[in-house]
Specification:
This protein is mainly alpha-helical and 79 residues long. 42% of the residues lie in helices and 10% in strands. The protein has a two-stranded parallel sheet. The radius of gyration is 20 Å and the shape is elongated. GO terms for molecular function: metal ion binding; oxidoreductase activity, acting on the CH-OH group of donors, NAD or NADP as acceptor. This is Putative cinnamyl alcohol dehydrogenase.
């Protein structure tokens, strides 16, 4: 909401309740975004790596030698 919301902290604590939020949305919004991307050919620039390359990838991150996000190819790494 754009306006402040008043909550009883006592009720939250005693009822063991949690208030949380997300700037990225939930499962429904994520699925809608993925569907939209697939429908419109939106892709991401990534570097697909095997799982045994993870340590090297981390070294590259520390050296700022990364152009794209690393994505671990788990399916092919476990064969």
């Amino acid at each position: 909401p754009e306006k402040p919301v008043e909550l009883s902290t006592y009720s939250l604590i005693m009822g063991r309740k949690i208030v949380s939020g997300s700037a990225t949305g939930g499962l429904k919004e994520t699925q809608e975004m993925l569907d939209f991307a697939a429908e419109h050919g939106v892709t991401a620039d990534i570097e697909l790596i095997p799982i045994d390359y993870v340590n090297t990838a981390m070294d590259r991150v520390l050296k700022s030698d990364v152009r794209y996000r690393f994505v671990i190819d788990v399916a092919n790494s476990l064969k």
